Amino acid sequence: MRRISVSPPVAALILAVILFLLSGLLPNGFGSDLDVARAQALNILRLAVFLGVIAAGQTLVVISGSEGIDLSAGAVVTLTAILTYILVNGANERVLLALVVVLVVGALIGFVNGVGITFLRISPFVMTLGMAGVVTGAIIVITHGSVTGKVAPIMTRLIARPLSPSLQIPNAIIIWVIFGILMWLLLERTTFGKNLFAIGVNRITSKLSGVNVTWTNLLTYSLAGALAGFGGFLLVGNTGVVHLQLGQPFLFPSIAAVAVGGTLLSGGKGSYWGTMAGAIVLTLITSLLTTMQMPESVRRMVLGGTLLILISIYGRQRALRQ
Amino acid sequence: MNRARWDAPSATRQPALFALILLVLAVLINLIVQPNMFARDTLNSNMRVFLPLILLAVGQAIVILGGGIDISVGGIVSIVNTVLATRVGLNGSPEQMWQYVFLSLLIGLLAGAINGFFISFLRLQPIITTYATSFLYAGLALFVLPNPGGGIPGDIAALYRSSTPLNVPLAFYVIAIVLFMWLYLRSTRYGNFLYAVGGRAQAAYETAVPVTGVQFSTYVISGLMAAFAGIAITMLSGSGNADIGGPMTLNSITAVVIGGNALSGGVGGVAGPVMGAITLGIIQNIISFADIDTWWETLVRAIIIVVALAAPGIVGLFRTQRRIS
Questions:
Q1: Among residues 169-228 of chain B, which lie with CB inside 8 Å of chain A?
Q2: H helices present in chain A, as ranges
Q3: Is B41 touching A (CB cutoff 8 A)?
């Protein structure tokens, strides 16, 4: 008997499509109206972009192994969104400057994480957790709870709206596709990508085969910070407003998206396609529960239950007996 | 186990030593800002606030020793809190209270068993599994009590808040019992199994250690300790709130790490995490007494914690350098 094996990203995508089709049957679903269905699908995809981009850095960190995880991503997203908001302040010409600043700030925070983890041997979980506290504290000190600023018209134009009225796809989705291709190139076609997978599987053997483990690890955490920064930039471009809890709700979903996408949390195996699929599935489930007007308590339970079922299907580790 | 010893030379030989130094340091600083700290009533009012996190950290420490992690403990605390606050009520009788305390412990055991089942029998990854179940538990708590409210009778809450038998706060008795139970557990075969499983599950399996059973048991213990923490925090606050447990989860993990246990498992004990939890409480205490600008509180607390976490690593760094030169 042949066992049917479907790769996790494909499985997650199939699940997303089935869930979406089923949602059409709901009382307030799209029914047989194709235009509404398309609009809804695009809207869910657009919402998934932000989780997807924020989860990109998480994917890298998780692949790097040794319990790699980035719990500071949520705080970095909030910080960079606020920085963008303040720096741009409604002026189109400062958008590029803001983008550079948030990437650098994100990378710096990630670099400090990397230093703590590689040189001081703090476990990634607590190092990034501590960093999240520091960044959140810094945000409070800088803003004193209120932020004044404005996003530039060009950001809304380039992120939230479609490219042209005839093409109905919001730009955010196009940005995400390009971003996905770049991530794939980074992971599969660069030395860094190869080294990343290598240190994820086994740090000692990769060191012995000439991989600079320390440098790769530092670069991974810096990149993860920069990507979270980019996520914050996109997020504020879409919402147009910031608040002090903007990024936090994305933190654990970003880890869940990575896990649902089939990236092993123990490292060394995974793909960004999987994370993209995971982000779509999670966003879909969340928005379905919201459309169904479930109370918060039921929403939490259904989300937890679904996640449990998803990881039970393909998140299992190797058996002890081989 | 060998690998872990080699990874962090300074912290592993005496895992709890650093936690002790940190605790003494924190106590000394606290003594400056709060000179009457060791007066019976002040000590009691501090310790009763620290106790829920201490209990939670003990459960978390055992899970982490066994090589796992439990993100769902906060959810369990919330369920217990909401069940007690809604079912007993402000006018409940003591019998009712103790019945529901018993039920709470069963809830904790069951919730822990659910975690353990998925992680040890289905072999799912601990962090994501308990993350998923944390949603289940937090959702259930919110289902039981959608808006903060309810409560337990005042005289029962007072039992927790102001009991100081022999002039020693109640919390110290609880801590002593927990530590003695741990010492006993450690000396049994189960204790050895726990370290073996956390150090290297595969090797433990090959030497006939019942890995699945041990992993399962750690989550059950953690669930039970979370239920105790939930009971303690309910008696402390006297009221119900479905989100009371959420922020405690990450604190319990921080307490375990400050206590000198390796997050990768197999290294450390329970005394360290207990000291870690007390240290975290004292840090909070110092900050609220030290007259720090409110805007700076979060940042100062976070920096202190990061420094506390980084310090063993910095010491280790200097040691290795000295050895090379």
A1: 201-202, 205, 211-212
A2: 8-23, 34-63, 73-88, 95-118, 124-143, 153-159, 171-189, 191-201, 203-208, 213-239, 251-260, 272-291, 296-314
A3: no
* B208-228 mean pLDDT: 91
Q: How confident is the model at residue B77 (pLDDT cuts 50, 70, 90)?
A: very high
What residues pair up with B240 in beta bridges, in sequence order?
B149
Q: What is the pLDDT of residues A131-162, one digit of tens each?
A: 999 999 999 888 887 777 777 777 777 777 77
Hey, are the CB atoms on B139 and A297 less than 8 Å from each other?
yes
Q: How far from the centroid of its chain's Cα atoms is residue B23's Cα?
A: 16
Q: Which tokens in the block code for residue B36?
A: 């009457």
Please, which pLDDT band fits residue B2 given cuts at 50, 70 and 90?
A: very low
Q: What is the ipTM of this complex?
A: 0.79
Per-residue burial over A139-149, b = 16 or more CB atoms within 10 Å of its CB, e = otherwise: bbeebeeebeb
The shortest C-alpha distance from A101 to chain B (Å) reads: 22
The residues that bridge with A170 in the sheet, in sequence order, are A162
Cα–Cα distance measured from residue B44 to residue A81, given in angstroms and rounded to the nearest whole number: 44
CA trace torsion A153, A158, A163, A164 (10° rounding): 0
Nearest CB partner across the interface for B205, out of A126, A136, A320: A320
Partner B, chain A 233-252, Cβ-Cβ below 8 Å: 252
Nearest-CA neighbor of B161 among B220, B222, B246, B237? B237
Q: Alpha helix (H) ranges present in B117-247?
A: 126-144, 154-162, 170-187, 189-199, 201-206, 211-237
* Residue A186: pLDDT over 80: yes
Inter-chain touch A303–B135, beta carbons under 8 Å:
yes
- Of A184, A179, A182, A191, the closest CA to residue A216 belongs to A191
Query: Which of B79, B115, B143, B306 to mutate: most A Cβ within 10 Å?
Result: B306
In chain A, residues 75-134 whose CB comes closer than 8 Å to chain B: 116, 119-123, 125-127, 129-131, 133-134
Of all residues in chain A, the one with the smallest CA distance to B127 is A265
Contacts of B116 in chain A (CB under 8 A): none
As a whole number of angstroms, the distance between CA B103 and CA B106 comes to 5
Q: Using CB atoms, which residue from A120, A266, A296 is nearest to B313?
A: A120
